[in-house]
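Methods — Computational structure assignment.
A single polypeptide chain was analysed. Its primary sequence is given first, followed by the predicted tertiary structure written as structure tokens.
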Amino acid sequence: MIELRNWLLELADEAMKREESGDASHDYDHLVRVMALADAIQAREGGDLPTIWAAVAFHDIGQERERCRGGDHALIGAEMAADLLSHTVFPQQAIPAVQQAIREHRMTGGKIPTTLEGRVLYDADKIDCLGAIGIGRLFCITGRYNQKIYSSLPNDIVEPVDPLVVRQLRRRPDYSPAIEFQLLFGELPERMTTTTGKELALERYTYMKEFFQRLRQEVEGEL
């Protein structure tokens, strides 16, 4: 089984290189971290390991095509995953389940994954958005577009904001990690889909919330 896990990660790495992905927040290291988190969640919650591993390996494979051509990387990635897995040693009957988990993994998708394997992927992926790693990843994303180190929510944006609208806001020059945290991360531990996911997310979320509170205080001269 461990050979299958490693093979899937290697296959994903090769595919990302072919796609010429330059996104440090969704790179091979992200896959390795999410895979470890998914293993920890699956050990307590269950789920088919080959399906989970493949879904983790390919959940962000469509990121570069979305950036360059538009569309939804979750939908793009599901199709790419099927192409990469077809006629290989991977259990062919599990490919539709892999695709379903990938299609349902986006935080801005507004959906709760409908399968256990999808919920394991969702929670593991979102936990890697939290804590010190999550902070670093957010600044990688906004830095790529020369956006702000800090900015508050623009006056023309009124909460609550539909998660799908956040995808559009992410390309504004006045966007920042603080805005992303405010709009998408509120009570994120409670939005995890498994008991284990909630437990793992809580400590990281608390750290991240305190960081952005501190950042605002420094920017506004309170500290």
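Note: The chain has eleven helices and no strands.
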